[in-house]
Amino acid sequence: MAKKLSRRMRELLEKVEDRPYDPQEALALLKETATAKFEETAEAHIRLGIDPKYSDQQLRTTVSFPNGTGQSVRVAVIARGEKVNEATNAGADVAGSEELIQEIQNGRMDFDIVIATPDMMPQVAKLGRVLGPRGLMPSPKGGTVTTELEAAIQEFKAGKQEFRADRAGIVHVMFGKASFSTEDLLVNLKALQETIDRNRPSGAKGKYWRSIYVAASMGPAIEIDIAALRDYKLPEAA
After folding, report:
1. What is the pLDDT of residues 31-58, one digit of tens each?
2. What is the DSSP string of 190-232?
3. Does one domain contain both 57 and 42?
4. Do 82 and 144 belong together in one domain?
5. Which of 100, 128, 157 is the last residue of a domain?
6. Which one-letter DSSP state was computed for residue 11?
7. Which of 7, 70, 77, 138 has its CA 20 to 30 A from that of 130?
8. CA distances (Å), 98 to each of 63, 101, 105, in order?
């Protein structure tokens, strides 16, 4: 049975035309349709021409948003010895060794990112069933398996975000707050587009980008003209 749309959503849908929008126009419309009673996030949903069941068509990487995400990020670090103190001093919200692994197995989840040092990965592997479905499993590709803890913690707290294509080849990424300026959202979205293009899987054949939609977290989907986003040139830094 189809879910009945609220009056608010019906009114917002009337504002969105069934066509690809210029990126700036789309993001201005995203802001206009963010009418919930809380601060909504800005989301991008990108369908790619890949089949992630094949290893050479998988996409998992990180993007650094120039304007951050507007969210505070809680970082957990799994390390050993002096590296635990290094992580704490660098701003990690949670840091520990085997005892932290046990706590996570027992249900502890008060973090948004998990970073691990390479020497801890054999023990971290047992958390695959817990962290994997949440997209939190540390990986070298995601920049979350590293000995450079201070740099990694600071980057993720400043707006670096890991993402991956789901089973259907769709990427879902939160790229800021609806309260950001249109220009700041566009700069972040451009960084995401360039990251996806730069990390095109070797097995991806034919048309890589199928569609891109943006939306406020409680708003309607707005299609963006992919070519226009690719052609957009970032303003020169002052």
Report:
1. 999 988 899 999 999 999 999 999 999 9
2. HHHHHHHHHT--TT--S-SEEEEEEEETTS--EEB-HHHHHH-
3. yes
4. yes
5. 157
6. H
7. 70
8. 30, 5, 11
Query: Do 108 and 63 share a structural domain?
Result: no
Residue pair 229/222 in contact by the 8 Å Cβ criterion: no
What CATH number is attached to the domain comprising 115?
3.40.50.790
Last residue of a domain, one of 112, 133, 157: 157
Q: Pull the structure tokens for residue 127.
A: 């958390």
Three state DSSP letters for 78-139: ECCCHHHHHHHHCCCCEEECHHHHHHHHCCCCCCCEEEECHHHHHHHHHHHHHHHHHCCCCC
How does pLDDT run across 89-121, given as a tens digit for each residue? Answer: 999 999 999 999 999 999 999 999 999 999 999
The number of domains in the chain is 2
Threshold 0.85, pTM exceeds:
no
Has residue 124 been placed in a domain?
A: yes
